[in-house]
Amino acid sequence: MTPPGSRIPLSDARDPDVGVNSLQSYELSGDEHFSLSVQVGADGEKRPELVLAKALDREEAAFHELVLRAIDGGEPARTGTARIRVSVLDANDNAPVFSQAVYAVRVPEDVPVGSTLLTLSATDADEGINANVKYSLKKATDLASEIFYVDPETGTIRLLRSLDFEEDDSHELGVQARDSGELFDTATVSISVTDVNDNAPEISVRSALNEISEDAPPGTVVALLHVQDRDSGANGEVRCSLNLNGVMFDLAASPLSSILSLCYWMSMC
């Protein structure tokens, strides 16, 4: 994060000769990120400074190798060289990035409590403590917090309580990955709950005759029954039958498939 234009003093060269045969100039080579500035003191001493010419990025280059050359004025000129290695220290300038913008998973409603449903993954291009990522639910509702748990260290999402397809067949969570600073990324987790045959059919009597005359004609409706199964699809399809010793009654479906008529004598139903 050091701004361009910043100066770093360098050790100056020593030449025991005097006059034109002593140190006359410096040259720098090796990298476009740095340039050389030479300050001349009141005593005529030349002091080299390294000038940052271009912003640094540790993720692009963690080290910069330079060569500083000191030249005297003799014929032929003599030179001395120093190798300079600049190590770029990391700054927290990169936000975490999720591997996916949307995580989608399908789970049966009878998945055991404590099961891991999926694992989030986010990376940070920084290093050390600046690359440590913590996971959390973003503005989670009370219901989501009661059902799902996000491990802040590993990013695994675990089930805290049983799912119920009939209660809610899908859940959408906002999740966040934050580094040690204030940089973060967000993603969406879509959890689809699939139905399991975990509900028994329920029968209720809507209406029924307390008595029936012995000369009631065949086809007389004795009772209206309501049959319902809270499961869906094939799991919610119900077959009904009568368990009687004698064939005196029969079942007939009404225009509404969940309503059955219990009829006296099967021939008219």
From TrEMBL:
<keyword id="KW-0812">Transmembrane</keyword>
<keyword id="KW-0130">Cell adhesion</keyword>
<dbReference type="Pfam" id="PF00028">
    <property type="entry name" value="Cadherin"/>
</dbReference>
<dbReference type="InterPro" id="IPR050174">
    <property type="entry name" value="Protocadherin/Cadherin-CA"/>
</dbReference>
<dbReference type="InterPro" id="IPR020894">
    <property type="entry name" value="Cadherin_CS"/>
</dbReference>
<keyword id="KW-1003">Cell membrane</keyword>
<keyword id="KW-0106">Calcium</keyword>
<keyword id="KW-0472">Membrane</keyword>
<keyword id="KW-0325">Glycoprotein</keyword>
<dbReference type="GO" id="GO:0005886">
    <property type="term" value="C:plasma membrane"/>
</dbReference>
<keyword id="KW-0677">Repeat</keyword>
<keyword id="KW-1133">Transmembrane helix</keyword>
<dbReference type="InterPro" id="IPR015919">
    <property type="entry name" value="Cadherin-like_sf"/>
</dbReference>
<dbReference type="GO" id="GO:0005509">
    <property type="term" value="F:calcium ion binding"/>
</dbReference>
<protein>
    <recommendedName>
        <fullName>Cadherin domain-containing protein</fullName>
    </recommendedName>
</protein>
<dbReference type="InterPro" id="IPR002126">
    <property type="entry name" value="Cadherin-like_dom"/>
</dbReference>
<dbReference type="GO" id="GO:0007156">
    <property type="term" value="P:homophilic cell adhesion via plasma membrane adhesion molecules"/>
</dbReference>
<feature type="region of interest" description="Disordered">
    <location>
        <begin position="1"/>
        <end position="21"/>
    </location>
</feature>
<keyword id="KW-0732">Signal</keyword>
<feature type="domain" description="Cadherin">
    <location>
        <begin position="99"/>
        <end position="203"/>
    </location>
</feature>
<feature type="domain" description="Cadherin">
    <location>
        <begin position="2"/>
        <end position="98"/>
    </location>
</feature>
